[in-house]
Amino acid sequence: MTTRPNPGRRRLLAAGAAVATAPLARPALAQAAWPTGRPIEIVVGFAPGGGTDVMLRALALFLAAELPGANFVISNRPGAGGETAYAALQAARPDGFTIGGINTPGYLSVPIERRVRYDRAKLRAIARLVDDPTAFVVHQDSPYRTLADLVADAKRRPGEISVGSSGVGTDDHLGLTLFQAATGTEFIHAPYAGAGLVKNAALARHIDVAGLNLGEIGMLGQDKPALRPLAGMGEHRWDLMPEVPTFREAGYDVVMTSERGIAAPRGVPDEIALRLQEAIARVVAKPEWTEKARQLELPMAYLPGAEWEAQMPAQEARYRQIWEKTPWQQ
Question: How far is CA 82 from CA 170, 211, 325, in A?
C-alpha cells in the first residue's frame, strides 16, 4: 500500500506563500478605508506548516471573498510560545489592518510563569475557530504502541526520552507536565518554534515523541501515515479519528487542547471588530469551509470573541493551579 499525500495542505501552503510575498501597497493615509485601504496583516505566532499557520492561511483565502477588496498578508513571527506575535499585535495601530492568531493555553499560561511583553487587556478576541486535542505522536516505526509502553520505558530510563513541543507553556508542554505528574515519570522537554518543526523532528527521528494536536498530524486519507498518535488529550475521541483513544481511556487523567482563533488590538473600532467576526461566522457556516476544514484536519469549534473571552478567566485559573502544583519549565 502506498501513502497518498494530503494535497489540501500542500496547495494551501503554496497559496499562502504567494499571498505573503505579494508586494505591499504604498503606505496608507491615517484614515484609510477598511478593509480596502491597504493590506490586512495576519500575524502568526508560530513557524509555517503548523496548525495555527495552516488554519490562518485557509481563513485568509475565505475571508477575502467575504470582504470584497480586502487583501490579506500572512506574517509569521515565531518565538517565545507565541509571545513575539502577541506583543507585535498589541503594538499595532488599532485600525483593523493588523490582526493575528491567538492560541490557548499559551496565550494565558505563559504570563503565569514569567513576565511577558503583552497585556491581555490590550488585545481583543474576535473569534475562536478551533479546539484541537493535544496528543502524543510517534514515528510509525517507534517501539511505543501505547501510552503504557511509553510509561514503562520512561520508568526504566528516567530523563532519557525526548518529547517535542511548540514551546514553553504551550498546550503540548502543559500536557507533558500533567502526564509526568500523573505517571511519576521524567522526560526531556524539547521546545521548538512551532508544530511544523516538531513534526519534522519526529519524522527525522530527532525526538522520541512529538507533542502535537490531532489536527496537526496530517494522517487522514493516508494508507500508511509516517506518524501515528498514541492517544489524544481531549475529553472525548475526535470524530475524524475515532480509533485514537483518549488519555483518560488509557488510565491517565490528562486533558489538554489548543484553542486557535483571531484577535486584534483592544482599541479596534467596534464596527470593524463586528464585521470581522460576522465575516468569520459566514465562512465557517459554508459547506466549502467544512470540506476545507476536513481536508486540513481542523477540529472546528467556533465561538464569537466575547464568548471566548468570557471563558478565559476559568481557563487561566486552571493553568495557575497546574503551575502551583507542577511548575512547567524548560
Answer: 9, 16, 24
The three-state secondary structure class of 269 is coil
Q: What is the mean pLDDT of residues 39-44?
A: 98
- State the DSSP string of 292-329: HHHHTT--EEEEEHHHHHHHHHHHHHHHHHHHHHS---
Angle at 82 between CA 25 and CA 113, to 5 degrees: 150
**Three-state helix/strand/coil letters over 231-248:** EECCCCCCCCCCCCCECC
First to last CA, the chain: 41
pTM beyond 0.85: no
Residue 149's H or E segment, with its range, is helix 147-156
Task: Say which CATH superfamily domain 132-256 falls into.
Answer: Periplasmic binding protein-like II (3.40.190.10)
- Written as one string, the DSSP assignment of 48-79 is TTSHHHHHHHHHHHHHHHHSTT--EEEEE---
CA dist 155 and 173 (Å) reads 19
CB atoms within 10 A of CB 206: 15
Chosen CATH of 8-16+36-131+257-322 out of 1.10.238.10, 3.40.190.150, 2.40.50.100, 3.40.1190.20 = 3.40.190.150
* Helical packing angle, 51-66 and 195-203, nearest 10°: 130
Q: Nearest 10 degrees: CA dihedral of 70, 10, 203, 236?
A: 70
Residue 18's pLDDT band, with cuts at 50, 70 and 90, is: very low
Render pLDDT for 113-158 as a digit per residue (tens, 0 to 9). 999 999 999 999 999 999 999 999 999 999 999 999 999 999 999 9
